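# step 3/5: fold
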Amino acid sequence: MVPPPDDNDHGCAWREYAEHLGTKVDALQAELEVLKRAFARRTEKMGKMPKVPRPPRTPEEIAERRTEQALLRAEKVVTEEKTEPVPDRLKKCHLCGGTNFRSVGTGRPAEIYSYVPGYFRRVIRTREVIACRCGGCVITAPAPERWAEKTRYDASFVAHLVVSKCLIVTPLYRLEQSFARLGMPVARSTMNDLFRRAGQKLEPLRAPLFDAIKNDFLVHVDETSFTMTKQKSKAFIWAFVGRSLTGYMFALSRGGDVPISVLGDSSGAVLCDDYRGYDPLAKKGARFRCGCLAHARRKFFEAGDVAEAKDALIIIGAMYAVEYEAERRGVVGTPEHLALRRDYTRAFFVRLLRLARELRRMHGPKTLLGRAARYTWSNQRELARALRDPRIPLDNNRAENALRVVALGRKNFLFVHSEEAGKELALLYSLVVSCTRVGVNPVEYLADVLDRIDKTADANYAELLPDRWKPPPKPADPNETSLFDA
């Protein structure tokens, strides 16, 4: 017997259309979730690196640290001592009513810090003019020495200008307003001319700086774009980070000829990202490429809140925990550091490769997880270099950090006008950033080098690099007496 037809189960066209719309909505919902993960605001909360507790400081270390801070305050802060007497209206004993008081100890000090705005100093040097009584000879005192011809701005002013733009990343129009508020109006065009003249004056230091970086075993390399007004396509600034110096190279393209021109005939390791522009350097020279684990981690982080990405982040976090332990022990770059990597990091890296191989088979090349897995799997040889040499770090963060100041400058003063201006900017970046790495005051360094470079022989230019520069001796105080003075 055939059952009667159900009124709710008829096969009309409207029901089929409704089922079709439901399937399409489900597909659109799944695609929306993927797009949310891809374009969501990224935070570094997921996959946070484990914190390794640092050992407590000994009393000797605490005392040494306090002494260093006290010396720093003594050098940078002008101390003025005043004695505040007790007012007469308070000189009355609450117990006996007497007014006969005596001093107790040295008193109670109270520190108050105040800010004194900076100022400019103008020195007017009058050059004597003498004439012979015969009327046929007039002699004028020689002009004072200057760091550049036909300029009334001292090298210290130019050094402050360079550091303000390259390190503090202040545009020239803001410096113009700041100087005007301090009572010294300086035209923006004048500052731009001084900036470029400083770059041209320091040009002889470019070759020895990059030669010093070339001699280092490990060099971190990265690049970022920069706008130049004289060409439609973007130019690029490359960062080459050595052991103690950082060199910036301005180029019109992102081609592989730039790293070859800097490191082509040197040997060692070059740590970079997955950009194929570094392949010619590895093929031509004696340097081998090393991979960046931070880039691999970023790919998994971008994959979103999925279990497989979390597993990868946990594994990578464990690899960094080994590095923190080596830093805590003070054995970075030593055979003991290599032993830690062989005992622990190697096992975590193998787990990461197995996970990447599985994800590579399960997810397509255009999915976020597929991209992350393929990046790790295709760069496993470069990433494994650090497991065999403790001098090689896991990531290229040094070069990435070196480009932060360039990115800020690109946002604040936007562009350079020509290739020559870009090269001068890159050289000044190199000197200023290298000063910060070796603990040298960049203003004092530039002010001294701008005065000394013309008096230095070509063979001694390397002595003016930030890591080898020595400040000039301070002039002796004529009022200061010595114990050996008779």
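# step 4/5: annotate
The chain has a mean pLDDT of 83.
# step 5/5: archive (pending)
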